[in-house]
Amino acid sequence: MEQNEADVQCAKFERTIEAGIEPLIEVMEQLEAFCSAAGVPEPVTVQLNLVLEELATNAIKYGYGAGEQGQIGVCLTLNGGRASLTVTDDGNEFDPTVAPSPDIHSKLEERAIGGLGILLVMRMMDSVCYQRRDGTNVVAVSKTFAPLR
């Protein structure tokens, strides 16, 4: 099914998954197909998927206690040349916008573990915002790009 130009100008992708690596991989594949069909340039799609992977993986690894189940929400809105991605989780509170910056200048063996993924998110996106809303972490990022069509 072909999309008309109006669909490409404003399109929305939404999923809610169980907090786990396999559901995350599946939703990343779906997001990639959605972006491709909507005319998002491949480098931007790769960036959006990396951001989704980083934010969701952090929630999966650190957001829940042993044996706790959780959910992760993914919402990508495309409006012309702007992608707005929101990732939500019901895990422990974590604001990536105030996480300490990792030491990227010391020798690798002297560096503390962690923080590089959040730095990657901050550098790849045009904006990164965080809110804690009703017991949920809400991270909204955006990226401006030139559509393929």
Automatic annotation (TrEMBL):
Stretches assigned to the Histidine kinase/HSP90-like ATPase domain: 22-143
The keyword Thylakoid is assigned to this record: no
Coiled coil spans: none
Molecular-function GO terms, alphabetical: protein serine/threonine kinase activity
Pfam short name (any one): HATPase_c_2
Domain of life: Bacteria
Protein name, UniProt field: Serine/threonine-protein kinase RsbW
Organism: Methylococcus capsulatus
